[in-house]
Fold this sequence. Notes:
By secondary structure, this protein is mainly beta.
Amino acid sequence: MDLSQTLPAHRLEIRASEPGPKIDPLLYGIFWEELDFAGDGGIYAELVRNWNFEADPAEPLYWTAIQTEGASGSISLDTSVRLNECQTHSLRVDVLDVQKNGRFAVSNEGYWGIPVENGTAYRLSFFARSEGAIAPSIRVTLEDASGNVVYGSVSIEEIRGEWGKYSATITANGDDPNGRLVLTFKQTGTVWLDIVSLFPPTYPDSLGVFRNDLVTLLKEMKPAFMRFPGGCYIQGFTGIDQAFDWKKSIGPIEMRQGMYIMWSYFATGAMGYHEMLQLSEHIGAEPIYVCNCGQTMNESVPDHDLDRWIQTALDAIEYANGPVTSQWGIVRAANGHPEPFNMKIVQIGNEDAVPRFQADYDRHYFVFRQAILDRYPDMKIVQSVNQLTDDPEWNGQPADYLDHHFYRSPDWFFNNASKYDNYPRSEPAVFLGEVASMSPDVGEGNLWGAIGEAAFLTGAERNADVVKLATYAPLLRNVNWRNWNPNMIMFDNTRSYGIPSYYLWKIFMENTGDTYLPSSISDNLHVKHITLEGAVGVGTWGTSAEFKDISVTDRNGQSLADDFTDTSLWKQHRGDWELRDGVFAQSSLETRCWFEFLRVDTCDYIYRLRAKKVSGSEGFQIPFSVNDGGGFIWNIGGWENNRSSIMRTSGEQMLEVGQSVPIEVETGRWYDLQIDVHGDVIHCSLDGQVIHEYTVEPVTTPILFASVNRDTLRGDLIIKLVNTSAQARTTNISISGVTDVVDQGTVIVLANDDPTIENSFEEPYRVVPVTRVINNISTTFEYEAPAYSINVLRLKEKN
Ligand code: AHR
């Protein structure tokens, strides 16, 4: 990440008289998906976990029976006494004995604790029915995790013999981020419970369900659109029953059916289709619905079953847009929103056009698009493309947008900021539906990641005639769970903060004009030397293998490591690794099983080892010269055991460099491997024969990235300037094609000398944008962009 280099002042020349493409007012939005507990345990403010007892058919997860001396009873899931046809389980509570000082109760632990705040009134409700001579009562308390402190309570009297809904308010008299909700049964008998709910105060007018701080963070970004509900969430992994089914997610909460989702948890369906539409409305964003197109991530439904999925998509549109007299418009109105939501863009499938399903996707896309346009001729359609490649291809069928996804390293974003400069203008426009820096060098979301994204977005704005929509992904993560890293907004039960990318996207959202103005920057090239110092290791891909006789020496045979036992240097990326009798064995058949065990601090070394394939589809992957942001891999028997190549890696990306050689690794045979690194030159030898020679080329990237817009309505010029280097960069800005500018402007700066800086719960505002006034502005003026900075200058045109 060393980008330091001394350079003279740069010149940024802006040609305001040659206006470029119009910028779509929808350009920047957000992407909402149920992942990392974004909805349940997240923006949907319900505090009770497994409130419908549907999370696991085997046991009432997150519920515990409390039984003290003098009381006894049991709790169990009951499938025979059901609240209604949608709820397949209730909680049966059998209270056998309650002496004077005894207590029989059930407690719910919430989503990693129930947060309790002094003075706050909580809305409690549940459905219950009883069996027995007397109608029992239940005392409901908010307590600390051990039950020693009670923060508030309410008694619900006379639970009747038929299902009924009981509601009350509990006001807390203490603070506890990790409390619990307890229902204590005062009489013997049997009680069934379902839909046990506890809400804190929520975002105003938000159906009473949205978490205040999280909605506020979203609203403050001012996103123009909200893409939802996924993501892979709409696809499901295997089995279409894991795919999001919007119809099961609307209406009274007790009629919702959750499902075990592909992100490995049960989602209750509470954050349903209506809530998502409502959320987009609250934050002023246009809804963009991604419908399932009859495919999961691993299978396609047979063509004769497609009609059902087409109808599901059409009904979703009708629910959003249909008149109150239509079948689904009536349901929307009954759910509290008679006015249509006015959805104008629909996406057909998410990431379904991967090579093995391309043909299926193309067929599905054709019929879905036809059916949607037949009924809604003005609807704009987004086509899913193969997201596994850097250059996703259009399938040739008409589309308003192609959905490009890039989870890449900041370096990749720098190198690809001109990606759309040569995009064929005859092809559909681009929706950057998921964009985020993702690599080891961005931690849990640092400034460096935001700088990578900012550089890329300047290129998107330059190509605003092609790139019409763009959004970061994913959006929200409850830090107690991790499906994905990084996420834009992090939260726990009581706190939340935006990572630097949150602020980058926010300031770009707030500062986008209507027209792009061309500009150029002088002296802008930075030459980055790739160092061959770094870690060495062993690895496999879809293969189990063994490694032994490992050594790293200098050219005189002197060992550069006495042994490989300094475990503080060991870094494992997947796999099942075991060291037995000097043989290092990897037994998993997962992909990308890498183990780094030694850092070599010189570019002059010889790395030797012996390797044997045990089973699986490929051969060996030998990491070397690995640094934080990436390194190299010798891939022997890659591409289903067909060839050998040297590959550059950057995070999860792998790029073949140099010449590949055909090879097939035999199972059960020991191979002698040697990697000789000398300065910039790498030699790889197999059984004593050099099969690769590769000289590492320096990489050239721009230091500054810029995008200039005009905001015609406000008479403003907006200059976005991204400094990727470790030094402040003086920039002489000259603007041609405007008469004059007001001599005072503003600049918003997101910067830090340390690009690895992150925000946290303890320091949520460590790296946030700072706005200040800049003076002495004219059509030529000087601006200094701080080291590692994202700058947004706003100037006012005179007249
Ligand atoms: O944003 C996280 C996931 O990344 C989305 O579900 C999917 O579309 C992509 O692969």
